[in-house]
């Protein structure tokens, strides 16, 4: 639930992406021979380069398709109003493509090391990479708020990406499909790196969310922070991946996309201003029509606001006020 008690409606963009999932599933179901061209098959990626992108939308059974669609629509209701439709679509595209490219490169490295030709013609696919990336975005937006799984189990939102990783890893291990985990892990990591280091922060010139609340160790229990923080700091120094601060003297807009990467007090004030602006916009639209119109019309999105919610799906579901 967004600030002021307004429940965002399902947006056209999330419906369109869910429709894409359904179409890809239908094509694969009714024309099975297309599976090798929609899923990522490294040995066929050249010249079929589109499978780097389409593989993230391939689903092979109806139950998984239903869970994917519900997860997408419900998480989009939290993320899209904050990021804006263009940034949200860009975020999904980056996470999905990064997962495809990373799996492709990893398979060829494994092939070079083992000379196992079967690896090149194994099908890799799954929406789990995008789902993991969206949970990282939810963590950025909602911070350390509490949520309910299945309407019963209380859990901190920051643990949801790791919980998804554990559940999916266990499931594919039981099913003997461990090779499908690449999309999940790369989706999680690529989403974090993009949001931490590269996501534009409005018109300030800053990039990435450098706040302490979005440190990598924040996804794990606090007892592991002393172990994770030095490793994350070393990797950041070696790769030079870090948030880019706003140029000195840059004008900070009153409301912008995520605006979380600078001083914590300033970030809190921006959240409050953005929450008020979003509440006023949603309140005005609520009386006249679609509450998500501003986002889908390409209007300036409000900054992330931390609100309580509850989730329900096979992995995650809907939100409601605490």
Question: Overall mean pLDDT score?
Answer: 78
Strand content: under 5%
Write down the secondary-structure element order. HHHHHHEEHHHHH
Fraction of residues in helices?
40-55%
Give a quick account of the main beta sheet: strands, pairing sense, barrel closure: 2 strands, antiparallel
Task: Provide a count of the helices.
Answer: 11
Spans of at least 5 consecutive residues whose pLDDT stays below 50 are: 1-6, 253-263, 289-322
The number of strands is 2
Structural class: mainly alpha
What is the distance, rounded to the nearest whole angstrom, between the alpha carbons of the first and last residues? 9 Å
Specify Rg, calculated over alpha carbons.
Answer: 20 Å
Task: Provide the descriptors you would attach to this structure in a database record.
322 residues, mainly alpha, globular, disordered N terminus, disordered C terminus
